[in-house]
Design a protein that fits this description.
Helices cover about 35% and strands about 20% of the residues. The protein is globular, with a radius of gyration of 15 Å. By secondary structure, it is α/β, with parallel strands linked by helices. The chain has a five-stranded mixed β-sheet.
Length: about 150
């Protein structure tokens, strides 16, 4: 997908994406550079921290459809081969449990080591990671999460 498509999606972000972005952008003061609606390998990533190789996706109801789940699984495999860990959150979790969502994201960012860009890639792109579908709870076990 093109940069123009990413710009179009920036203007059409869902309420859940806007809400999460308001929290994610504050992480810059902690040294995490997170981009929104970033093009990568033909995909538009909802949010990505290239330095930590972490992709964050907000899934709407259409992600429950079998065809979309197949597409998401393929996309996650592509990203994993490129070295990224993917966190997927249902939009309703962002609405109802934003603090728990942020705890999971902050834990993943803190656990990941900063990486150097691969030669030939735009700045902040790298390899490493897996796909996670975190289970959200009102409170996380002690020692997990935190921001």
């Amino acid at each position: 997908m093109s940069v123009q498509r990413a710009r179009t999606l920036l203007k059409a972000m869902s309420f859940a994406e806007v809400r999460l972005w308001a929290r994610l952008r504050k992480l810059r003061s902690d040294g995490f550079h997170i981009r929104r609606q970033a093009p990568f390998r033909g995909y538009i990533l909802d949010f990505v921290c290239f330095d930590r190789r972490l992709v964050i996706e907000v899934d709407g109801p259409h992600h429950d459809e079998p065809e979309q789940q197949e597409h998401d699984a393929f996309r996650d495999r592509v990203l994993r081969r490129e070295g990224f860990k993917t966190l997927r959150f249902p939009g309703r979790a962002v609405h109802e449990e934003i603090d728990a969502v942020m705890d999971v994201i902050c834990h993943a960012l803190s656990a990941a080591s900063p990486t150097r860009p691969l030669r030939g890639h735009p700045p902040h792109e790298g390899e490493g990671g897996d796909v996670s579908r975190p289970l959200l709870r009102r409170t996380l076990p002690s020692g997990e999460g935190g921001s």
